[in-house]
Amino acid sequence: MRTSIATVSLSGSLTEKLAAAARAGFDGVEIFENDLLASTLTPEDVRARCADLGLRIDLYQPLRDIEAVPEVEFARNLRRARHKFELMRRLGADTVLVCSSVSPHAVDDDALAAGQLSRLADAAREYGVRVAYEALAWGRHVSTYDHAWRIVETAGHPALGTCLDSFHMLSRGSEPEDLEGIAAIPGEKIFFLQLADAPLLAMDVLQWSRHYRCFPGQGGFDVAGLVRRVLATGYDGPLSLEVFNDVFRQAEAGPTAVDARRSLLLLQEAVGTAPLPGPVVPTGVAFAELVTPDAEPLAALLGALGFTRTARHRGKPVALWEQGEARILVNTGPAVRREGTQLAAIGLESPDPDGAARRAEALLAPVLPRRRAPQDAPLDAVAAPDGTELFFCATGRPELPDWRADFEDTGLPSERTDIRGIDHLALTQPWHHFDEAALFHRGVLGLDAQESVDVADPYGLMRSRAVTGADGSVRIALTVGAAPTDDTVHAQHIALATDDVVAAARRFRDAGGRPLPVPANYYDDLAARFEFADGELETYRDLGILYDRDAQGVFRHCYTRTVGRVFFELVQRDGGYRGYGAANAPVRLAAQHAVRALTGG
Amino acid sequence: MRTSIATVSLSGSLTEKLAAAARAGFDGVEIFENDLLASTLTPEDVRARCADLGLRIDLYQPLRDIEAVPEVEFARNLRRARHKFELMRRLGADTVLVCSSVSPHAVDDDALAAGQLSRLADAAREYGVRVAYEALAWGRHVSTYDHAWRIVETAGHPALGTCLDSFHMLSRGSEPEDLEGIAAIPGEKIFFLQLADAPLLAMDVLQWSRHYRCFPGQGGFDVAGLVRRVLATGYDGPLSLEVFNDVFRQAEAGPTAVDARRSLLLLQEAVGTAPLPGPVVPTGVAFAELVTPDAEPLAALLGALGFTRTARHRGKPVALWEQGEARILVNTGPAVRREGTQLAAIGLESPDPDGAARRAEALLAPVLPRRRAPQDAPLDAVAAPDGTELFFCATGRPELPDWRADFEDTGLPSERTDIRGIDHLALTQPWHHFDEAALFHRGVLGLDAQESVDVADPYGLMRSRAVTGADGSVRIALTVGAAPTDDTVHAQHIALATDDVVAAARRFRDAGGRPLPVPANYYDDLAARFEFADGELETYRDLGILYDRDAQGVFRHCYTRTVGRVFFELVQRDGGYRGYGAANAPVRLAAQHAVRALTGG
Fold first, then answer.
1. Cα-based torsion angle of the residue sequence A139, A143, A145, A148 in order, rounded to the nearest 10 degrees
2. ipTM of this model?
3. What is the rounded CA–CA span in Å between residue B344 and residue B440?
4. CA distances from B139 to A41, B8, B110, B116, B204 (A)
5. Residue B141: what are its φ and ψ, rounded to 5°?
6. What percent of chain B has pLDDT over 70?
7. How confident is the model at residue A596 (pLDDT cuts 50, 70, 90)?
8. How far apart are CA A560 and CA A544, in angstroms?
9. Mean pLDDT for chain B overall
């Protein structure tokens, strides 16, 4: 099916919007009137630009407050519409969107509405234009799709059809039976289909619509279910995204357009119109790669945590540190970014690395060169939206290329076994692309996204959303700061799994490690909230261990100081605890701010 | 009356919050539990710090999910509460807030709730603590203030009273008759009064409460009306602000605390408990002062607009440009800020400059030195929250000091009279203090605040809110960008009033002025929307004049290019048009972005 996007969904000038839509692979655009008005391009320029970019102008929108008004007002409206039809002729656009009236002058008279829309369609036909009539959820008299369709049906005009919009239909809390009326509409009378998702917010529908829409799969609507019903009518127009969103308005148009198109690809997969290479769910974390201009602080930290530098890369300044199944690469090569120590790549164990990369590529993730140097093992890798490199690995499987083969052993003995593996990774996301990140990890990697949670930092509310494999073998926490300016303030982290956090924390400290200090008041509160065995709380207090409990089990965890933008966490899960200690995050964040204030870091 | 503020209303560490509250002049604080937990200060440290700062700890909060539960659970809750009472003893806090339960285990049994709260109060009394029971608007069984009071009354315990909270009471859309029950509560049983305002949003009350509260006078609630009712009961505890707000969480604590205290001062004035010097509403704009490192581009622009450099300051490098009643000062002295050309000060004609300054000072506006140099006329001036200096002037009134006396005439003749005066000034506000700005101009200057409007910029939604004198002689548009990073992106502007914008625009262009180019598409749209006399639209198109119409009249306006952070607008209002051409703002913003993209400026 053809895909389209409304220019209002993207930021910038009309030129920037068109370029971004074309680059992301859309077939067409809806031209939002205000974008044209504010542009220095003439309609003829826009037509030529779209042709050059391979974009069809699928819709011009919107015409407002046209129908069901006294004749004298309708005459004025028709005059206004003729101006727009003439403009559309210059643009080369053949379908116009007419929204149901919100005018206080409109009357509740379907016959009048049908008659006037019919006359509008007569005029449109003179210019080769079709009219698609849509019910706004807050329309004055017409606010449901089936009501709009009844009016279109009554008019019975060949140049008049309906436009369906998932936001207007699903924001009214439509039950499945409310959507059954779609089947009664002949496909050829559905002139257009606009798609948007939205988070399930209880708020005024106009504000919700204007500020909080998002791309399908990023919100809580069953957009795929609606599209299936529409396709069943025989509709063969484009799937077109129309999203009003305050964040997208500020974001760069390029990444937003890619995000948008990926959401449509996943939607098409869900409704069975565009087969993609199937998801290959990762089964574990092969490694986490840190880049740093100075390996010493990291080496000291990893040493105190009980890691051993077991191998080095044959061709690059990359050291492998191991303990149990936890593997950390420390890369001191010429840093791609100059921001100091940070988490730059993740190796994910994959049952089918090639298939995983093919799906990611089909879903518009940039594919990275398979070999970084001629002698390296050929590795499948893509870039996540936040720039983190994701390697699809087959550690220790002789039939497939193994990243481990690029490393030669140091022969250093591994001395400790406090740590079993990597429990989870926390990645700071660019502020404008938080919803995109969750959809990427869900759609591309096949992980499940948990609910988003707010976390109080001393300087603003952070959000955090976990994506996980079904068995918990891969857990990634996506986090984002309170404001665009916070993009680089908050640290990424690597959480290491242990079966005995008390022993691990003690040995870390005895080895010279510096835990994040936890305020005494926190432990007084724990004493109020839970009952502990004799001495248990004192041990936690002594070692800076935090405690949480859910319906399933218990979570105990502690933190190292931060190096560059990265810190480590030691994590012990018991009894099936499934969270990440979010209740303790405000205390951790405040402690990190306090350390930073003291050290000036 | 004493004033207090909850630590959750301010950003930062507990230390920062306490310092900010004290500096703004609050008498006390509510300690929000999470702020204490995350602090490295012990309870004894906090007590000592508050004593040093002259702050009383008026409340410790909150205790949650205490009452109306099975006995075994209540025993656990009582154990938890005793821990907190002991903590309060260490803090020196004597009142604890208990919120009505949201626990799924709570039962709908007022007698059980009263009995358990009574036992809680027994325990509290052992520690010298009083319990203030409050109905959360989303409490499971108790969600209204009068229900909470009935339970307190039933318990009949001397250490148990109620806490009233304006958000929880007014967010339920309380009609005046819903508040009549306040009169039935004896004042001494109201242990605490928490105040917050909120914008009138139709949304889930929990989300509204947690993210959108604001200080009294910044939202849509009648907080003063509620306070009057509470004071009528004999309540003599503090007026305490408890505001959860995503923006304040990110803002610096210092300015937020000043903003908070100013809102309480205005509230106290409204309810008659704290007389302030009365408002002195400005009656006109005496001048606008621009600072610039390079006077040449401004001189060229002002010259083309028809201004004459009529005078120069006797002691400083400041030129006065005049035309009609429009006066622009161009200051090339050592700039206080290094950001290039900008609007730094406004002179407001005042019937009583001294009185205006005294009110501003009482409302915590920084007062500026009356004389900038020994020979200058003594002028009353204060700083607005955005840093703009506001001078209260008495131009041409011989009985008062006149700023004009500091200037000597150049003797240059004034040649043109296109411009009558200053129509309005647009000031870009710091992102975190937009609500504060409107309250300042309303409360301090006695201007009326209009509704806030959203304006689509190509890179995000801006907001704009006008404050005006009743007769329109002073109009200031407060604007703010889409995100904190936009603070300095958008320009300030000076709108000049003319009775013939066509003539003024033409003479501007003929004098070498460069108008902001307006896209041709805009005029095609005007042609569709309105009918014009022959040649009228062509004139607008030729001169870059924009057009708007409201129920009262017609607005025609055009813009100059931007110099530094400032541009000028020529404005003709006819027939009582009251707006600012907001419908045209997206076109203007896009045109400014286009010019900037071309010139790299």
1. -60
2. 0.91
3. 17
4. 57, 20, 13, 17, 14
5. -120, -20
6. 98
7. confident
8. 10
9. 94
Smallest Cβ distance to B521: which of A39, A484, A521?
A39
From the candidates B249, B256, B490, B592, which should be mutated to test the interface with A, based on the most A CB atoms within 10 A?
B249
Contacts of B207 in chain A (CB under 8 A): 201-202
Structure tokens at A297: 């602080």
pLDDT confidence of B415, banded at 50, 70, 90? confident
B574 touches chain A (CB under 8 A): no
* Mean per-residue pLDDT, B479-508: 87
| Phi and psi, residue A340, nearest 5° | 85, -155
Angle between helices B71-91 and A520-529 (to 10 degrees): 160
Q: What is the mean pLDDT of residues A201-229?
A: 93
What φ, ψ does residue B105 adopt, rounded to 5°? -85, -15
Task: Write down the mean pLDDT value for chain A.
Answer: 94
Q: Is B594 on the interface with A (CB under 8 A)?
A: yes
Asked whether residue B85 carries a pLDDT value surpassing 80, the answer given is yes
Which residue numbers of B belong to the known binding site?
A: 134, 165, 194, 242, 424, 493, 569
DSSP characters over A474-494: SEEEEEE-SSGGGTTTSPEEE
| Residues near A372 by beta carbon (within 8 Å), at least 6 away in sequence | A316
Mutation for A interface: B65, B138, B521, most A CBs within 10 A? B521
Q: How far is B459 from chain A (nearest CA, A)?
A: 5
Binding-site residue numbers of B for a divalent metal cation are 134, 165, 194, 242
pLDDT at residue B281 greater than cutoff 60? yes
Give the pLDDT confidence score for residue B533 in this predicted structure: 97
To test the contact with chain B by mutation, choose from A524, A529, A588 the residue with the greatest count of B C-beta atoms within 10 A, namely: A524
Chain A residue numbers with beta carbons less than 8 Å from the beta carbon of B458 are 11-13, 38
Which residue in the set A203, A521, A593 is minimally distant from B13, CB to CB?
Answer: A593
Cβ–Cβ contact B254 with A under 8 A? no
What value does the mean pLDDT take over residues A468-485?
A: 89
Q: What integer pLDDT is reported at residue A600 of this predicted model?
A: 63
Binding-site annotation, residues of A for a divalent metal cation: 134, 165, 194, 242
Which segments of A are annotated as binding site for Mg(2+)? 424, 493, 569
pLDDT score recorded for residue A416? 85
Domains of chain B: residue spans and CATH = 3-271 (3.20.20.150), 284-409 (3.10.180.10), 419-599 (3.10.180.10)
Q: Report A:349-388 residues touching B (Cβ under 8 A).
A: none
Determine whether the interchain pair B485/A484 forms a contact, defined as Cβ–Cβ distance below 8 Å. Answer: yes
Which one-letter DSSP state was computed for residue B414? P
- Of the given ranges (A412-426, B33-47, B118-132), which has the lowest mean pLDDT? A412-426
Q: Which amino acid is residue B578, in one-letter code?
A: R
- In Å, how far from its chain's centre is CA B468? 15
Computed from CA positions of residues A233, A235, A240, A243, in that sequence, does the dihedral angle turn out positive or negative?
negative
Point out the residue among A40, A202, A590 whose CB comes nearest to the CB of B519.
Answer: A40
Q: Which residues pair with B380 in a beta bridge?
A: B392
Specify the residue for token string 């180019």: B517
**According to the model, what pLDDT value does residue A408 have?**
96
Q: What percent of chain A has pLDDT over 70?
A: 98
Residue B535 reports pLDDT greater than 80: yes
Q: Strands A546-549 and A460-468: what pairing?
A: unpaired
pLDDT digits 0-9 by tens, A486-496: 655 567 999 99
SS (H, E, C) A10-70: CCCCHHHHHHHHHHCCCCEEEEEHHHHHCCCCCHHHHHHHHHHHCCEEEEEEEECCCCCCC
Mean pLDDT of B128-146: 97
Q: Which of B84, B202, B519 sits opposite A37 (nearest CB)?
A: B519
State whether residue B9 is helix, strand or coil.
helix
